[in-house]
């Protein structure tokens, strides 16, 4: 089953949005298979956002993502990578539709509440960057027979 890496950014943690965000993915029918509250080192931040190195916002992005605890998660389910991106909304919260996480809770691109992998390759890369295999819990969710 497909897996993705999602992370409530420091602004979302500070604003008390962790529960709300977890709840949206739970209610959608996805399965949480790993999670932790953690602080990100600047090394991990630079590696995580390596594709943006050299861009004008790179330094402020690293400063922001290391500025407080984040809530890192791995979610599993059918088409979870693309669906989670839809549920997050566009990168700039001003372009994100109401009903999406960024559309409902964000105002600026620099503080857009949540990260989510954008492809199978980035999901695999980001999951292994943030989680050891023993931190990912494979289990059967009884409710799945009412979803699939
Ligand atoms: P996403 O987080 O939707 O995958 P991205 O990978 O293009 O977006 O960028 C990573 C983060 O960098 C994004 O969540 C917020 C920040 N960012 C992107 N574009 C920006 C810009 N033009 N100015 C400031 N921050 C930006
Ligand atoms: Mg991205």
How many H/I helical runs?
A: 7
Protein structure class:
alpha+beta
| Cofactors, ions and other ligands in the entry | 2'-deoxyadenosine-5'-diphosphate, magnesium ion
Distance between the termini: 12 Å
Q: Sheet bearing the most strands, described?
A: 4 strands, antiparallel
Q: Determine the mean pLDDT.
A: 98
Give the low-pLDDT segments.
none
List the helices and strands in order: EHHEHHEHHEH
Q: Estimate percent helicity.
A: 25-40%
| Gyration radius from CA atoms, angstroms | 15 Å
Keywords: ATP-binding, Cytoplasm, Kinase, Magnesium, Metal-binding, Nucleotide metabolism, Nucleotide-binding, Phosphoprotein, Transferase
Domain Nucleoside diphosphate kinase-like: 1-138
Enzyme class: transferase
Catalytic activity: a 2'-deoxyribonucleoside 5'-diphosphate + ATP = a 2'-deoxyribonucleoside 5'-triphosphate + ADP; a ribonucleoside 5'-diphosphate + ATP = a ribonucleoside 5'-triphosphate + ADP
């Amino acid at each position: 089953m497909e897996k993705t890496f999602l992370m409530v950014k420091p602004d979302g943690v500070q604003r008390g949005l962790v529960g709300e965000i977890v709840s949206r993915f739970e209610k959608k029918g996805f399965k949480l298979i790993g999670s932790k509250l953690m602080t990100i080192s600047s090394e991990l931040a630079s590696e995580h956002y390596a594709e943006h190195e050299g861009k004008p916002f790179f330094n402020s992005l690293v400063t922001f993502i290391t500025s407080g605890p984040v809530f890192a998660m791995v979610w599993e389910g059918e088409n979870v990578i693309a669906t989670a991106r839809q549920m997050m909304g566009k990168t700039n919260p001003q372009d994100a539709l109401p009903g999406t996480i960024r559309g409902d809770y964000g105002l600026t691109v620099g503080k857009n509440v949540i990260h989510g992998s954008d492809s199978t390759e980035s999901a695999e890369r980001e999951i292994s960057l943030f989680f050891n295999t023993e931190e990912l819990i494979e289990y059967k969710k009884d409710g799945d027979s009412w979803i699939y």
